[in-house]
Amino acid sequence: RFPYLCYKNGGGAFLVPYLIMLAVGGIPLFYMELALGQYHRQGAITCWGRLVPLLKGVGYAVILIAFYVDFYYNVIIAWALHYFFASFTSELPWTRCNNTWNTPECVGLAISKESEFSNNETSLDWFNFSEVITEVTNWTKNSIRTPVQNITFLTHQPTVDIVASSLNLAPEIFSNNTTDFNNTDTVAILRKRNQGASSAAEYFNRGLLELHKSGGIENLGIVKWDMALCLLAVYLICYFSLWKGISTSG
To answer: Rounded CA gap, 176 and 149, in Å?
Structure first.
């Protein structure tokens, strides 16, 4: 979590207070915990009970904190395990918007001519992509009149040139927000989808967690058995890694 916390709290400026607290509090407390455990050869509860019986509750607090942190991080590892198994499919489920959990605002991470294009429309749905479109000249339809909208990937000049030349238009036309054109050979509807939700985000929030099916903590919903099995697998891995003592983990 350190890179995320560093980025969230100011980037490089976060390192100054972090390193100070690490030297003043983090490393000394960590060393004390290791030294007490090695010297007494007991767990946290017994160790603190021997040192200061009045502070035996500190040992219980240490166990309780480890218990809660274990729940938190094992769930994250279970998510990663779920993604690991999902990545073995022929088509990654978080790259498309043709799934049952997707919304109309979904923006796919990839283009599929078979799934995204219909007989009446030719469309390119992009989300922060800058790849050069080389197949646009092969997508044709009957002559219509439709707006062209400026989107992120059109700011890259090689892409602008290819799209403009394939539509027989000047590259400067894409600097406007909307422009009408009439072309009998190739027509591409370039949709501005900057306000949409990525298919990856919808897969996590709606496909994996199914947050849209719950109105709050009072409505937990049913058990997601795929995630429950992943969480069980994580606990089994942790158990068999440590069942003969900490020495089995190296």
So the answer is: 8
